[in-house]
Amino acid sequence: METVLGLKFIAVALLIGFGALGTGIGFGLLGGKFLESSARQPELAPQLQVRMFIVAGLLDAVTMIGVGIGLYMLFAL
Fold first, then answer.
1. Helix crossing, 45-75 with 2-40: angle to 10°?
2. Which pLDDT tens digit goes with each residue over 47-72?
C-alpha cells in the first residue's frame, strides 16, 4: 500500500510539474511571436493583443485543469 501511495505522489508531482513547464514554454513562444508580429505590422498590434490574451487564457486554463485533476487524485483517490 505504501508503494501505491508513493507512486500517487510522484504522479501528481509530474502532472503539475509538466503542466507548469508546458505553460512556461507556451507563454514564452506566445509572447515572442506577439512581439515579432507587432514589430512587423504595428498597426495590427491592438488586434493581435486581444487574440494573444485569449490564447493566453486558454493556455492557462489547461494548466489549471491539470492542477485540479492532480489535487483530485491526491485527496479523493
1. 180
2. 999 999 999 999 999 999 999 999 99
Active-site residue 16, yes or no?
A: no
Residue type, 46: P
pLDDT score of 1: 81
C-alpha cell at 35: 512581439
Report the pLDDT averaged over residues 13-19. 93
CATH code assigned at 17: 1.20.20.10
User: How many whole angstroms separate alpha carbon 1 and alpha carbon 19?
Assistant: 27
Choose the catalytic residue: 13, 47, 58, 60: 60
The count of structural domains within the chain is: 1
Q: Could you give the CA distance from residue 36 to residue 34 in angstroms, rounded to a whole number?
A: 5
Residue 14: count of CB within 10 angstroms of its CB: 11
